[in-house]
Write a structure and sequence with these properties.
The protein has about 300 residues and is an alpha/beta fold. The chain has a single domain, classed as NAD(P)-binding Rossmann-like Domain (Rossmann fold, 3-Layer(aba) Sandwich), CATH 3.40.50.720. It is about 45% helix and about 15% strand. It contains 9 helices and 8 strands. Strand 1, helix 1 and strand 2 form a beta-alpha-beta unit. Helix 3 runs parallel beside helix 4, helix 4 runs parallel beside helix 5 and helix 5 crosses helix 8. The longest helix has 23 residues. Pfam families: adh_short. Keywords: Oxidoreductase. One of its GO terms (molecular function) is oxidoreductase activity.
């Protein structure tokens, strides 16, 4: 069940997609628990409004914002480097931002837009922040997944193709990549104090997730979501619980839904696949020698 009481005083958290929807509700609940919270998204106007609202509701003035655009690796790098240079600690990283129904195109970085927003951007951000997270241990990484991952597949030769996948397929592929990434984080950081979890919010009402769909599909989907979806306030509490619950320290690598351990994708136990995904992802996002703390730690 959800942990409702554990405090996060003295802890610092980053929440991507924190200006609205689930990210906003998660950030609000972290602030209520006493955390220092940095909300991040690409819209500065919405960020300012969200920061002010969270501060007012929670009476926690330790809420700030920074701009990040996951569709731009340059923006992700800038955000990550700024964080490393200005934050003495980072205890919680919540990769919440994601999108459905984005245009089927490549970004300025040459990557499939949905794959970059839902996976590659989060991979790059996490990779650069991992030394800070490790130095701040015990620390947690929470990655947003989805039930669509069960129908996803990873084809390293074609995962950035345009015109190959429909919107549901590319979403599924991106969320499967997130699940495999989370498993590899657990493999590489076990016993370091850095723990990683994936989280499926199921279906959530009153968010912007459907905004990119064609009007007809959006209206039909919204009717379904309104009937079966969870309130975003409740899901925000669930995610904050994953960040705060002390009983999860020994549960790294697990997948959660409704505040319970849930069935993960069967491929997360394929160590060769998760390691391959890690290494190819580093190449795709062009990890530089200066950024490559794995290489630097060896030398």
């Amino acid at each position: 069940m959800c942990d409702k009481g554990s405090r996060l005083d003295g802890k610092t958290a980053i929440v991507t997609g924190g200006s609205s929807g689930l990210g906003y509700e998660t950030a609000k609940n972290l602030a209520l628990r006493g955390a220092t919270v940095i909300i991040a998204s690409r819209n500065e106007t919405k960020l300012i409004r969200a920061r002010d609202q969270i501060q007012k509701i929670t009476n926690n003035k330790l809420v700030s914002y920074r701009v990040i655009d996951l569709a731009s690796l340059k923006s992700v790098r800038s955000f990550a480097v700024n964080t490393v240079n200005t934050q003495e600690q980072l205890d919680i990283l919540i990769n919440n931002a994601g999108a459905l129904g984005l245009p089927d195109r490549v970004t300025e970085d040459g990557l499939n837009l949905t794959m970059q927003v839902n996976y590659f951007g989060a991979f790059l951000l996490t990779y650069i922040l991992l030394p800070l997270l490790k130095n701040s241990a015990p620390s947690r990484i929470i990655n947003s997944s989805a039930s669509s991952m069960y129908i996803g597949h990873i084809d390293f030769d074609h995962w950035n193709d345009v015109g190959r996948y429909n919107s549901i397929e590319v979403l599924a592929n991106s969320k499967l990549a997130v699940a495999l990434f989370t498993a590899e984080l657990d493999n590489r950081f076990r016993d370091t104090g850095v723990t990683a979890y994936s989280f499926d919010p199921f279906i959530v009402r009153d968010t912007d997730i459907l905004n990119n769909l064609p009007e007809l599909y959006k209206n039909v989907s919204r009717l379904f979501v309104d009937m079966v979806g969870q309130p975003k306030q409740g899901v925000g509490k669930q995610i904050a619980s994953l960040a705060a619950n002390p009983n999860l320290e020994m549960e790294s690598g697990q997948h959660y839904k409704f505040c319970r351990k849930w069935i993960n994708h069967w491929l997360v136990s394929d160590r060769e696949l998760t390691e391959t995904l890690w290494n190819i992802s580093k190449s795709v996002v062009n990890i530089t020698p200066e950024e490559d703390w794995e290489l630097n730690s060896v030398t």
